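Minutes, project check-in
Item: structure for the 98-residue chain
Input as provided by the requester:
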Amino acid sequence: MGPAAPDFSNQVHDFDPGLDNGLFWTVPVSPGSVTAEPGSGKASLVVSGLEMEDYGNVVNALMDGPSKSATVSFQVHWARGDQRIKVRDQATRLSFSK
């Protein structure tokens, strides 16, 4: 018997662009949203006011069910790391290296 199905009953929002563009949860952003500094190990993605749909939960989103219009803004910054770690969670049997 495999692991139990995920419980989405506490999920309040599921922001995604929908499946209308033929791609799975992807949306183009302006080229100016992305910056990179080759050689430094730094890069950024800064997006403001991106139109999304709020499906409430992932199951409703996957079924392309009812949604509400929403906008999202976010910043993601990457920097070179100088230390590697390995994480293991025995409860979920997940492991990854960072």
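Outcome recorded: The longest strand covers residues 42-54.
No further action items on this chain.
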